[in-house]
């Protein structure tokens, strides 16, 4: 340590002995076993209208099993972007007016969502759901 009154940076810095930086270690990869309390992540495909899980292989005539909405539409596509030209990140020749209706776009790729996989199902009643919040 120094016998100076002020130890802030910049105060008589030329007289100060150089401080060595600690080498930064690389963050460890998450491969290998996880701790039992850490939740896993999974990739799923969801309906853009109701949010229900749908199969990831979507055909032109596919529809949601829950709300019967068309799945081969612009809103269900990976490249859908409301801020882009024609609301698509891929270069398309003509604008598709109805983004929720079925179309035959060749550039369609089903949107995949990464979410946490939880082991518990939906709660049976409100009191049980509240109790589950504070359970250790």
Describe the structure.
The protein has about 140 residues and is largely without helices or strands. The chain has a domain of about 80 residues. Helices cover about 5% and strands about 10% of the residues. It has a three-stranded antiparallel beta sheet with strand order 2-1-3, with no helix packed on it. A hairpin with a 6-residue loop joins strand 1 and strand 2.
Main beta sheet: strand number and arrangement? 3 strands, antiparallel
Strand content: 5-15%
Could you say which structural class the secondary elements and strand pairing correspond to? little secondary structure
Global outline: flat
Low-confidence stretches: none
Number of strands: 3
Tell me the number of helical segments per DSSP (H or I, 4 or more residues long).
Answer: 1
Distance between the termini: 46 Å
In what order do the strands lie side by side in the largest sheet? 2-1-3
How much helix is in the residues?
Answer: under 10%
Order of secondary-structure elements: EEEH
Gyration radius, in Å:
27 Å
Average of the residue pLDDT scores: 77
List the helices and strands and how they pair.
Elements (H helix, E strand, L loop, with lengths): L39 E7 L6 E2 L58 E5 L8 H8 L3
Antiparallel strand pairs: 1-2, 1-3
């Amino acid at each position: 340590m120094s016998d100076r009154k002020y130890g802030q940076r910049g105060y008589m810095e030329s007289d100060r002995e150089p401080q060595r930086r600690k080498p930064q270690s690389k963050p460890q990869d998450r491969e290998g076993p996880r701790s039992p309390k850490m939740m896993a992540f999974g990739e799923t495909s969801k309906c853009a209208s109701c949010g229900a899980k749908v199969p990831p292989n979507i055909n032109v005539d596919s529809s949601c099993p829950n709300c019967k909405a068309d799945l081969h539409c612009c809103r269900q596509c990976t490249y859908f972007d409301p801020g882009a030209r024609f609301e698509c990140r891929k270069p398309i020749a003509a604008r598709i007016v109805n983004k929720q209706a079925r179309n035959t776009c060749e550039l369609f790729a089903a949107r995949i969502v990464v979410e946490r996989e939880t082991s518990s199902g939906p709660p049976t009643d409100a009191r049980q759901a509240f109790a589950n919040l504070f359970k250790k």
